[in-house]
Design goal:
Layout: H1 6-14, H2 18-27, H3 33-42, E1 43-44, H4 48-52, E2 59-66, E3 69-79, H5 85-94, E4 101-104, E5 113-117, H6 119-128, E6 142-145, H7 150-156, H8 161-165, E7 178-180, H9 189-202, E8 208-210, H10 225-231, E9 240-244, H11 248-254, E10 262-266, E11 294-299, H12 302-309, E12 320-325, H13 331-344, E13 352-357, E14 386-392, H14 407-416, E15 422-428, H15 441-450, E16 456-458, E17 481-483, H16 492-502, E18 508-510, H17 519-532, E19 535-536
Parallel strand pairs: 1-4, 3-5, 4-6, 6-7, 7-8, 8-9, 9-10, 10-11, 11-12, 12-13, 13-14, 14-15, 15-16, 16-17, 17-18, 18-19
Antiparallel strand pairs: 2-3
Helix pairs in contact: 1-3, 2-3, 9-10, 12-13, 14-15, 16-17
Length: 549
């Protein structure tokens, strides 16, 4: 043991959990002490370890419950006496240089305890350490700091986010590569912008940046802090970016970043990327987004996502495209988006595609006279492995447009996507009576015969004609999850027999009733689930990771 290589000791400690590491530190072989401490301090999820290293008599603790969870205990640490350099010495000498990843910020509703350092405490630490950047974690590589939202600031008495966020430089040494600093309110955009520009000046080689905010807080400046920050540098080492509501010039600047592989774009407003009359139109250029493999777009209206896709050249390496549209859409808008995907995504690269439309109340543009939708633009993507289309259509106003899968489409799907593992397509429209789906159980069998790798299927079909003895000559199939959405069904025993015979590996089953006339169908599918002994799944509006498929 005395001759054990340091590299081996580090590998052993990296593979252990926190409980085992603590045991190693307290009772184990002395040679494990430093590697175990390195592993324990490598990833710090809060400021609790720092507080634990400081004298107990230093603190006056103010306790308050979370405004939405009275059982949650949130503690703000105030100074009871002046901070001295000796108070920090043990932490600085023994632990600060071990930290590589720090996450701090918003206390979550479901957390039973959260620790908050007061502004006075942070200011005192800054003074006692001579305003030395990164003094609390000089070798830090990954940093995530989320300022508190306005309602929580008021409740906890922390003051504006900016008054706390300006102390993030206590943790930022010269080795930071991953930086996440979302803007949660616009109480002081000038301070937020100043902090970002300091980051841009100091860290030219960042590999990951996240400025994405979960809150709708329009910027107060003519040019948003995110636009100014991203446009200030070529970011030649950047590999991952998540950002809110940028303008078109900033998007085109992002398009030139040579190593960018993951891009998350979240838009809060409708008009951020709209064409300004009189300005020079922008077109996709060869070399734009040359390395982007994963693209995620979230926005109020489908047109914004379409305009983003139109900036991608047809030859690209995007393998995963994920779009979440908050408002409902007309079929014309959906058709335009599918056509844009066919024109601007590379069939040899795209493997995973999800489009979720209508995640919030409210409707987008009025419906047009288009009577149906054509998904054939997607048939050119022969390498698709996952496809999810969850669509809330605009209310019907004099037309009977639909988003339905026909028997002809099923035949082409079975031929076009032989490697498909996850397929889920559904649409709903408010205040409409149910229609009989144009496909039935025979089409489901043809689909399974063409997609031998399929493990998840979500599709509406007419199950009223199932007799129970139908058996595919190519079966049985390996399907493990089935979601029938709001499909009509009559004989539950026939449906159970059909599923058991053709999909014996089916374990999980789900259904959806959205119309006032389909309550009986809901009861029927619940009996099917119970008689077959399937686990239940709920209808999912958002794209779910398909690694298991």
């Amino acid at each position: 043991m005395e001759k054990c290589l340091p590299e081996l000791l580090s590998l052993i400690c990296e593979s252990l959990g926190r409980k085992d590491l603590l045991s190693m530190v307290l009772t184990g072989y002395r040679g494990f002490l430093d590697p175990a401490l390195d592993a324990l301090w490598h990833d710090i999820p809060s400021l609790d370890p720092l507080i634990a290293c400081l004298p107990e008599d230093l603190w006056r603790i103010e306790r308050k419950p979370h405004p939405k969870n009275p059982n949650a205990d949130y503690r703000t640490y105030h100074l009871r006496r002046p901070l001295r350099a000796a108070d920090l010495q043990r932490y600085l000498d023994r632990y600060a240089r071990r930290i590589r990843k720090l996450e701090s910020g918003i206390p979550l509703v479901w957390e039973e305890k959260s620790t908050i350092l007061s502004r006075d405490t942070l200011r005192a630490i800054q003074i006692i350490t001579n305003f030395n950047p990164g003094v609390l974690s000089p070798l830090l590589q990954s940093f995530y700091w989320a300022p508190y939202p306005p309602d929580l600031q008021l409740h906890l008495g922390t003051g504006p986010s900016s008054t706390i966020s300006e102390y993030i430089f206590l943790f930022l040494g010269d080795h930071v590569r991953n930086f996440a600093f979302p803007r949660l309110d616009n109480s002081d955009d000038q301070t937020y912008a100043t902090i970002l520009m300091n980051i841009a000046d100091r860290f030219k080689d960042l590999e990951a940046i996240s400025l994405q905010s979960p809150y709708d807080t329009p910027p107060t400046l003519d040019i948003s802090p995110s636009d100014t920050f991203l446009s200030s540098s070529p970011w030649r080492c950047l590999q991952s970016l998540a950002v809110d509501s940028i303008t078109l010039p900033t998007l085109l600047h992002i398009a030139t970043m040579p190593l960018l592989m993951s891009l998350i774009l979240h838009f809060q407003n409708h008009d951020t990327l709209r064409y300004v009359p009189g300005s020079t139109p922008s077109f996709a250029q060869p070399g734009y987004f040359r390395s982007v493999q994963d693209l995620s777009i979230s926005c109020p209206e489908l047109g914004t996502a379409t305009r983003i896709l139109q900036q991608f050249p047809s030859f690209n390496v995007v393998s995963t495209l994920h779009c979440v549209i908050r408002e409902a859409a007309s079929l014309d808008d959906i058709q335009t988006a599918l056509d844009a995907i066919a024109a601007h995504c590379d069939p040899s690269s795209l493997k995973n595609f999800s489009l979720t439309i209508g995640t919030e109340k409210g409707y987008g543009s009025p419906v047009s006279s288009s009577l149906d939708i054509d998904i054939s633009p997607l048939f050119s993507f022969k390498n698709l492995r996952t496809l999810e289309l969850q669509v809330l259509l605009t209310p019907n106003i004099g037309y009977k447009e639909s988003f339905s899968i026909t028997s002809e489409a099923v035949s082409r799907m079975a031929i076009s996507w032989p490697g498909m593992k996850y397929l889920d397509i559904s649409s709903t429209r408010p205040n409409t009576s149910p229609n009989t789906p144009p496909i039935d159980h025979r089409d489901i069998l043809r689909l399974l015969e063409g997609m031998r790798s399929l493990t998840h299927l979500g599709l509406q079909f007419n199950a009223t004609e199932i007799e129970g003895h139908e058996l595919s000559s190519s079966g049985p199939f390996g399907l493990r999850r089935l979601h029938v959405h709001d499909s009509p069904v009559l004989s539950t025993s026939n449906a159970v027999s059909f599923l058991k015979s053709n999909t014996p590996n089916l374990k999980t089953f789900g259904y959806l009733s959205t119309r006032q006339y389909s309550g009986w169908f809901q009861e029927g599918w619940e009996r099917v689930r119970q008689e077959a002994g399937y686990n239940s799944i709920d209808h999912r509006l958002f794209y779910e990771s398909t690694d298991e498929y």
